[in-house]
Amino acid sequence: MANDEEKTTVEASEDTATADGASAKGGKKKLIMLGGIGLVAVVIGIVVALFVVKPMLSGSSGDATEEEYTEQTEASEESSEHKAPKPKKKPKKRHGGKSEVLIYAIRDIVVNPAGTGGSRFLSVSFGFELNSPGLEEEFAAREPVVRDALITILSSKTVAQLTDAKQKEIVRYQIRKRVSKLMGTDELVGVYFTDFVLQ
Question: What CATH number does the domain containing 136 carry?
Answer without folding.
Answer: 3.30.479.30
